[in-house]
Amino acid sequence: MQATLLQYGLRLRELPNKHTTWQDVYLLLKYAPPDSPFYKTINANHGWQDAEYMLAGILDAVNWLVWAKTEDGARGVNRPKPVPRPGQDKPSKYGTPVRVTELLAGLSEFWSKQ
């Protein structure tokens, strides 16, 4: 809390004063930005915003697509691990393993019916 208040030029020991009330301090802390020390302390996300989650999702997708074009992908082994997200004990899996040839056959069958 002290570090976040210091970012605004405030010291807890000098509050309240004629310019800043306890209500002001409450609002500063309640709406602290995700990169502030106070927000990081009380939230498991540690300041990850939507953009970081989307980038991690894109990286996971690209890693999976690159892997799918390899011999390991054709055999369905050595799948890439997802990027760890804040607050997760272990990365989640991508889903049920399937051979690339089976996936392509299923997609081909699906699109031929459309």
Molecular structure report:
This protein is mainly α and 114 residues long. Helix content is 51%, strand content 0%. The mean pLDDT is 81. It is built from six helices and no strands.
Question: Which characteristics define this entry?
Answer:
mainly alpha, rod-shaped, 114 residues, single chain
Write the layout of secondary structure elements.
Elements: H1 2-7, H2 22-30, H3 37-42, H4 50-68, H5 71-75, H6 100-112
Shape: rod-shaped
What string, H for helix and E for strand, traces the elements in order?
HHHHHH
Percent in strands:
under 5%
Q: Give the fraction of residues assigned to helices.
A: 40-55%
Write a compact overview of the structure shown.
This protein is mainly alpha-helical. It has helices spanning 2-7, 22-30, 37-42, 50-68, 71-75, 100-112. The protein starts with a helix and ends with a helix.
